[in-house]
Amino acid sequence: MTGRQPFLHDLNVLLAAPMQAWSGRDGQIRRQGAEGIYVADTRVVGEAVLTVNGEEPEALGVSRESGPGASFEAVVRSAGESHADPLLVLVRRRTVQTGRVLEDIVLDSKLPKEVAVSIELTLGIDFSPMASVKSGGPRLPTTAVLEDGCWLASSGAVTASVSAPGATAQKCDGGIRFRWDLTIPPGGQARAAWSVDAADTLSPVTAAGVTAPPPLTVSARDPRLAALVTRAQQDLAGLRMSSTEQPSDVFLAAGAPWFFTLFGRDSLIAARMLLPVDPQLAAGTLRILAARQGAGCDLETAEQPGKILHELRRGELLLPATSHNDQLRLPPVYYGTVDATPLWISLLHDAWKWGMPEGEVRALLDNLGAALAWLRDWADADGDGFLEYLDTTGHGLANQGWKDSADSIRCQDGSLARGPIALAEVQGYAYRAALDGAELLDAFGQPGAADWRSWAAALARKFRAEYWCRDGLGPYLAIALDADKRPVDGVASNMGHLLGTGILSEDESAVVAARLMHPSLFSGFGIRTLDTGNGGYWPLRYHCGSVWTHDSALILAGLAAAGHVAEAALVASGLLDAAESFGFRLPELFSGHTPGDGGPLPYPSSCRPQAWAGAAAVTILLATLGLEPQGHGVLPVVAAAVPTPFGAFSVSGLWAGGRQFKVDVDGEGNAAVSAM
């Protein structure tokens, strides 16, 4: 037990929901940190260390790595005659499938003589819950028993079955040691294999019941663009899940390993980013969240009528005081989020615009009405006209926007704001949601649209009067209002989410765009969460100086929507540069360092992959194009001229209005849409 959250940045991850496999870059799974094989929210294998003739092979690297599979290659020097060249190579081909992880072990020899080897695999069965792993808690070794040739272990509803054909086995040190005695012919091969099947019958989420659409095809002058999109699509495929109650509806789990389940905000934002790629993902996410929409009032769960949930787990989540959220205890279904409800409304609107069938939209109109009512009747607890939050339990989330760590909302001197907190970006989300809801009400013959437009106009007027601050660089928007209704004057990325919502005037948008692109916020790779002049700034602080991929991508989309396409192109280019630093898998977050500082560093416990970080690849690709859906059966329109930070490119396999299409952009920025 370390009591420290494990680092992830130097580990290999393979996943196919609800399974994950985390190992060292050499393929070994050691009894340390987050390494292991997981099903849903439980680790079932905590060790899988392989030796040949009593020695660990010497790692060469990882090849053929994709979302669910990789080959770990190593040299064996503990068998056969000594040679200067590595003539005996071991390859571990690991694949993660729904409910299973399997590994083929291949010894490939170029030695001139027959070689006898003993492969041993030490396997540790460990049924630690994810919350315990995340907090560096003690391991929970579990005894396996041999039945019908398989080693079986269980803890409650979680079961695991390990098979190693052809191996002898004996129990050792709380685990199992498998041994294969093999003979490799001259210039030949020898093979072994093992697998683990696992299930959690009480998990509320499971593997997606619907296959993903065919991947996009990207051709670009800059080859990094295709590499980014390819990697993102592989990662997102591994995050696809369904609820056990609605197997035909699909959503994206928030991220691996910590948030491998349904999160309202995360799943909604990712689905919205992916609308032109996978419209069914948006529809499934909307329906799954609508089925769990708040109906009553419960202070413990933060449920309120019409409210969209924050997260769904199989049991209570317990995290220690050393976590980002201080001492945390959340119920299995938790509603502690101030932004998921307006985001749900706007996703329903946008999904309709991009071609969600009218019958499917109509089926959610009662949920729309309840969500709109929550904005008016519940989200503004003190009646001041703004949406705000306050945890009253003492063990829920202290902050309930996307920056939900306990220390994220800061004044410019670094001091923490006191709640209730009314976040700036949430007012923009609510403004947009009210107008989006009004358009849906009109389109489907429902009353109340004029009232919601009036409500939005009143919110915009009050917002304009209360949120503006000024410093030596000029005006900017506060991150929030605090308990005393004073602006929390930290200069932060939050203001960027207001771009494109309509709550800002053209002049105000220009002021916000200029501040976001100032070197104190724009690192060259993305927009920092907090500017470098803040007393709480640190480039590796979770929400106070780092760069979050989705945050910068949403700001990129907002800049483009507000007409600041040159600035949007700079952010897109910066994110692509960052992606190259991380093997084209954009992480949840990375450091706020500049190119002059040596470039971005990994945030060591960041989720990889993460839904909205993976989905950001589509925003980077498409945001500056100005794509506008035109209704069912009609292709979208595109801006007449667009920035070309990547040079000429083409993307095919997109969807709008029920039709598949492609976009071609030439080197001068001329874009064209055509049917496929």
TrEMBL record:
Domain Mannosylglycerate hydrolase MGH1-like glycoside hydrolase residues, every copy: 332-581
InterPro entries hit by this protein: 6-hairpin_glycosidase_sf (IPR008928), 6hp_glycosidase-like_sf (IPR012341), GDE_N_bis (IPR032856), MGH1-like_GH (IPR054491)
Membrane spanning stretches: none
Classification via Pfam families: GDE_N_bis, MGH1-like_GH
Cited Gene3D superfamilies: 1.50.10.10
Domain of life per record: Bacteria
GO biological process: carbohydrate metabolic process
Domain Putative glycogen debranching enzyme N-terminal: 17-194
Protein name, per record: Amylo-alpha-1,6-glucosidase
